[in-house]
Model the fold of this input.
Amino acid sequence: MKIAILGATSHIAKGLIYNFNQEGNYELFLFARSIESVQDFLRSIQCEKGIHLRSFDKLNKEKYDVIINCIGISSSSDFKERVSSYFRLTEQFDNLVIDYINDHPDTLYINFSSGAVYGTDFSAPVDESTCSRWDINHITEADYYGIAKLNSEAKHRALRDLNIVDLRVFGYFSRFIDLKSCFLLAEIISCVKKRKEFVTTPDNIVRDYIHPKDLMLLIKSCINKFFINYVFDVYSFKPVAKFEILDYFVSQYGLKCTVKESIKISAVTGIKNNYYSNSRKAEDINYKPQFTSMDSIIQESLAILGI
Done:
């Protein structure tokens, strides 16, 4: 099976490349702005067979069974610096793929969307009855990311005769995370490695981290559906609360953790206390996750820390 992955240097893309390569039977065409960065990554995982590196202008040179769009901004710090360009970035590469599948309608387009399409109110988890909410007369930077993703989803549903799936990711964690990023688990693991104190607020936020193997399972479920134009919320077997995560790293790795009321949390896309979905529409395509969020954290952090 020939699979094209756009944005091959992204966190999610690296996990897909690693797992596709581990399974074999896939020919991967990897597209990125920095081919050198992809080459460095492939060497680090000893992955050489069945891999082709391409620049984006070469997308039309091959026939693919599946195109997976992982284009995005790699960390919240990157996002803050480039937030004004995100609409154009999303649109540019989405249109590139749509132009391709218009000419190759048998190709499945899998696009990574985000739970941010629901808006910025996550005082409770979302489900199939949740409506997307935006204060349309007071749009802020916290709204840009979700609106850009929502625009893509709406365009894809309008193209109902094309083979397109949007996967709304709420949380993903793997051994390939950039520890310099500002995400919760990256900061926790960085503190463990550097033996630094992790300081946090008393809010016990809840997250849902899909295991890399479950994400592969979901993608295969989409591929096995002969024709599909739909969107699915992505979920693990069970979400996890922040203090459950911290208790694990304190007990297993000796993390020093302090809770302070006065800390200011920087959240470019808004504060999300319960950032996960109870929607189980993916069951319709036989997706049944095997791993909890905590399973993912335990297994993948072990690969990073090697302790």
Remarks:
- The mean pLDDT is 92.
